[in-house]
Each structure stands twice: as C-alpha cells, then as structure tokens.
Design a protein that fits this description.
19 helices, seven-stranded mixed sheet, two-stranded antiparallel sheet, alpha/beta
Length: 473
C-alpha cells in the first residue's frame, strides 16, 4: 500500500506533525538524515501500519502515491535547499514539495520558480503552534504553486486546528512566498504581543510591587475579557509556578533569544516603507536584554529614577488599557504591512481570512482576532479607523497615556507602549513636522519638496542661500 504523504525531518515538530497526519487517517512515510532518529521514532510509535519508517530518500519517494506529497520539517536556509537537491532526481512532474519550516519568503519565491521550471510544485507553508500545535492542530498558512492546493487541502485542513466556529485554521493564501510571508508577520506580531505582556508584568512588579500570586490573578482575570488569548493564559500559569520555595520566573535570566522572523519582519517593513514600529521595538528590546553584562555595569553608573509608581489608584486597569491599545496598534501595523507586501508581490492576500487562520492553533490565537476579521468585512483602509477599534482606542486612551507618563517618571522602560502611542498620535495628526525635514533635505542636498497649495507630484526647490527664491523642478 502506498503512503498518502511523506515527511522529512523528525525533530520535535516533525515527529508531532507526522503523528497528527496519521491520527487523521493518512498513511505517512517518514525519513530523517540520521537513521537512528528514524529508528527511535518508529520504535516509539510501535506497530502502526499508518507510519512507515524509511531509511533512504529513495525509499521514501518510492513509498508514496502520485502525485507525491513531501513535507520538509528541517531548519530554514541551506538545509532546505540541500534536501530539495537530494529529492529532485527522484521526483516526477506534478510531485509536490512542501516546506513546513520558517523559511525566508524570498527563498520560497526562488524555490517555487526553480521547481516549477522543472515541472514540480512547491508549497511554502507556515506552521504555528509549537510542538503541541503540531501534534493536536496547528494554524497552517500555505502558499506557492496553486496547482498543489487541491492535492493537499484535505490532508492539511484535517490536521489543522479548528476555530471556535469549526472552520479549519488552514487555507490557501496565494502564490510563491505568500504563505511564508504571512507566517513571518505572524511571528513579528507574536514578538509584539510578548513584549506588551512583559511590559505589563514589569510595571506591576517594579512599579506597583505586586507579588506573583497577585499578578497571576490579574492575568487570569484579563484572560476572561477582551485580552483573552493563549499568551495571556500561559503568563498567568508561568507566574504561579513555584519550585523549591522560589518562583521559577525569577530564576530565569533576563536575556531574551530570537530566531530571526521578527528581524525579517522589520527588515521587510523598511523595504516596503511601512511603519511596523511596535514589532521593531519588540525586536530591539530583546537585543537590549541580551546586553546583560553591559546593563549590569551601567546600572551602577547611569543616573535616573527607579522608583515605585506614585499614583496607584486604578493603575492596574490603566495597564490593561495600555496593553490592549498597544496590541490594537501592533496588529493594525502588521496588517498594513501584509497589504503592502501583497500589492508589491501580486499575492492578493485576503486580510480577513488571515485573521481567521490565527484564531486557533497558533501562538497569537485570541478572541481579539474575531474582531479583526469582522472589521475587514467592513473594508477599512486601516484597522485604526474601523469604528470598533476607534471606539476601543478612545476608551483605552486615558489609561494608556497615564501608564506611559508614569513609567517615564518612574524610570521603567515601556518601549512598546511608547512607540504604539507615538504612532497613534502621529497617525491622527493632520500635520506633522516633516515639512521642516523636507526643507532641511532641500537645503543641504537639493532633494526638492512638494507644496501644500499644489497637486501631489509637483516638486520645487528653494535657493536657500540666494535670497530664498523658489523654482519648480
């Protein structure tokens, strides 16, 4: 009997995804470059006829029904290219290679072109949810060769998480790198979500002097309202974990790691000219956190306040409002970037559909995403001007401003809350001081400028050192 699908790469994610496929009625062939890993996995699953362990690439390919569908769960970058190169001589036109890792979208664009020229089909599929999601239902974001979707849709939607309304959190997103791009921005937004939660924790701990039980109770309460989400839920659980009389959280070094998708999101935002400022601050906050030794030394020599918040009445609620408002700004910025990338690459991304894919299975799953999906059904140019979010920001604004001001006075860093508020104030400003910047650029470099009383696209230059005369350009 031929297998329905193959999987290469039996790390934790690969193993769990393979078992997920098997549990949903698929016979799956698996292979890992290190044979002992394959053998250990086969021994661990026992005598399951729906899991076929293969010792070579040739054996894996030969075991599959046509068109062959092969999922790669290997590290992004050169390892993906290496596996594809090893596979290609054994594949036939119409066979499908599916990259389920966190590949850079430009790599997926290149691979799609190369494989399609050889008559093969390429899918770049973002998979979110960690090992638990892979095992029991992730959010899946496929894009690439459109001809592949009818051959993988049933399999992928079966193993994906189901949203509360029963809809699978897996749907086709668009050509070449669309799927991996959406996953990249998902991860960037995830960086932002984690940072705004961390800032709330720090304000409560350092600014208000709350203990872990108090903070755990607050996050648990928040998880019952508009902030209901996986990350808020696990934050409450993390705060409550105690071992040996010590809260485990306080034993963890305050130096955050990262794997690159947040950085890629920020780089892409700059290339597209899009203001994804909160994700950028979240990435930089992790970078600053990694300077642990330098920060320790600087703490003894750099002056500044580090004191409790003076006005504590209602401050926990103000933190909640700051977190919620900043989260709204972050998602608005992320979807602005997705729209710009879609226009740039011709992907025709459906932003409301993307929000629906993130409602279950993934790390940023949250009740909030239903509100975003509903908003996009009303076709706003920007989430911030949709009536639902306009009202939400208006209601949260006083607390948000209070938190940022109090944090500055107390010497507690809140880079995400601050940049979100700065973006909000800039976006609602009819006139910004960029006219001075344009004048400066024209003065020292004759870069020209547009005028408020002339149509956009007409450019002028002032002879700044020659009496201020102006000439059209």
């Amino acid at each position: 009997m031929s297998s329905d699908i193959g999987l290469i790469g039996l790390g934790v994610m690969g193993q769990n995804l393979a078992l997920n496929f098997a549990d949903h009625g698929a016979t799956i062939s698996v292979y890992n470059r290190t044979t002992s890993v394959t053998e250990d996995f086969a021994a661990g699953v026992g005598d399951r006829p729906d899991v076929v362990a293969c010792r070579t690439i040739e054996e894996l390919v030969a075991s599959l029904s046509r068109p062959r569908r092969i999922v790669l769960m290997v590290a992004a970058g050169p390892p993906v290219d290496a596996v594809i190169s090893e596979l290609r001589p054994h594949l036939e036109p119409g066979d499908i290679v599916i990259d389920g890792g966190n590949s850079l979208f430009t790599d997926t664009i290149r691979r799609t072109t190369q494989l399609e020229e050889a008559g093969l089909l390429m899918v770049g599929c973002g998979v979110s949810g960690g090992e638990e999601g892979a095992r029991h239902g992730p959010s899946m974001m496929p894009g690439g060769s459109a001809e592949a979707w009818p051959h993988i849709s049933d399999l992928f939607q079966a193993v994906a998480a189901d949203a509360p309304d029963g809809t699978p959190c897996c749907d086709w997103l668009g050509p070449d790198g669309a799927g991996h791009y959406v996953k990249m921005v998902h991860n960037g937004i995830e960086y932002g979500d984690m940072q705004v939660i961390a800032e709330a924790y720090n304000l409560m701990k350092v600014g208000l002097g709350l203990d872990h039980d108090e903070m755990a109770a607050i996050f648990s309460e928040w998880d019952q309202g508009v902030l209901d989400s996986y990350l808020i839920e696990i934050t409450a659980e993390i705060l409550a974990v105690e071992q040996g009389g010590e809260r485990r959280l306080e034993a963890i070094l305050d130096a955050a790691g990262q794997k690159g998708t947040g950085k890629w999101t920020v780089i892409s935002s700059m290339e597209l000219g899009q203001p994804t400022t909160l994700v950028a601050e979240a990435v930089y906050a992790r970078i600053v956190s990694a300077f642990k030794e330098s920060r320790t030394a600087a703490a003894g020599v750099l002056a500044g306040p580090r004191q409790p918040i003076a006005d504590t009445e209602g401050f926990v609620e103000a933190i909640r409002q700051a977190l919620y408002a900043s989260k709204i700004v972050s998602y608005a910025q992320g979807f602005i970037q997705l729209k710009a990338a879609s226009d740039e690459h011709g992907w025709d991304l459906d932003l409301g559909r993307i929000a629906k894919l993130w409602r279950a299975g993934c790390i940023i799953r949250a009740r909030f995403l239903d509100d975003i999906s509903d908003a996009f059904s009303r076709h706003p140019d920007n989430l911030l001007v949709d009536p639902f979010f306009t009202d939400a920001l208006s209601a949260a604004q006083d607390g948000w401003r209070r938190v940022v001001a109090a944090a500055v006075e107390a010497g507690i860093p809140v880079p995400a809350y601050s940049t979100a508020l700065a973006f909000y104030d800039a976006f609602r400003s009819e006139r910004l001081p960029a006219n001075l910047i344009q004048a400066q650029r024209d003065y020292f470099g004759a870069h020209t400028y547009e005028r408020v009383d002339r149509p956009r696209g007409e450019h002028f230059h002032t002879l700044w050192t020659e009496g201020g005369g102006e000439e059209p350009v």
